[in-house]
Amino acid sequence: MQNQILRYPVQHPLLKKYIKFFWALRIDQAQLNHKLIPQRNINIRFNLSSTPHYAYRGNEANRLENVYFLGLRDRSADAFLKLNGDVDVLGICFEPDGVYPFLKMPVSEFKNQILGADEIGFYPSARISERLKETQGIAERLSILENELLSLLTAPDHDLEKFRLLFNGLKHENSLSLNGFCNLHNINIRQLERMYAKYVGLPASTYSTLNRFHGSLNQMLNGAYTKLSDLAYDQNYFDQMHFIKEFKRFTGNTPREFILHNNSILQIGKMV
To answer: Which residue blocks in the chain are alpha helix, DSSP H?
Structure first.
């Protein structure tokens, strides 16, 4: 499985501002049961096969639309994505604040949800999906996808550019409290949180916690540690117990249980 998910770089300079990478998953006659772990980037997935995608939470199954969005989560949902048959998926992994220019709606509306494109009124997805299905070659598919995405961009969002300066500043000045950061940059904390809700989808402090979790998860998946206490120290947790508690918040498992289960798409594709 490890080699089935392939990443592809964004080619157009304008799209590089908003999209981290594209990815594809193709498997013949698969039986997949992926645990959905909160990610720090919104993903859009195009199901280009006839195999339906189902999201399970407990015994409740929900058939997903052929184009769907995974909003950011602030906790584990104990949810699974199940596929049984031929799998042909093309995905877009956006920058943390990159999806808004294409959807033109506050990203907080996707929080803790999996939503279909029709459900949120993103109607260009049907045309894009049909065009993608008309070809099997990944190069042509990516060209179609980039051209369609470019057509959705309108005038530059100057407020987004201002937010990006604050977002990147907060990410690198993590020793400051949120109030301290706002005082330093002369911005009202409520204004900052409104911008986070609009462009990122989670409160600033929650996203910072999620981002730190992914830093630790990335370190785990790449084996770049010897002891959990060292990993906790590297990622600026108070101690090992603080790290484990936060890890369980986002995965529902301890780090050891998570590695043993090995059933997250993040593990299969190292998509963190």
So the answer is: 13-16, 100-103, 117-120, 124-133, 138-152, 158-172, 178-184, 189-199, 204-221, 228-234, 240-251, 255-261, 265-269
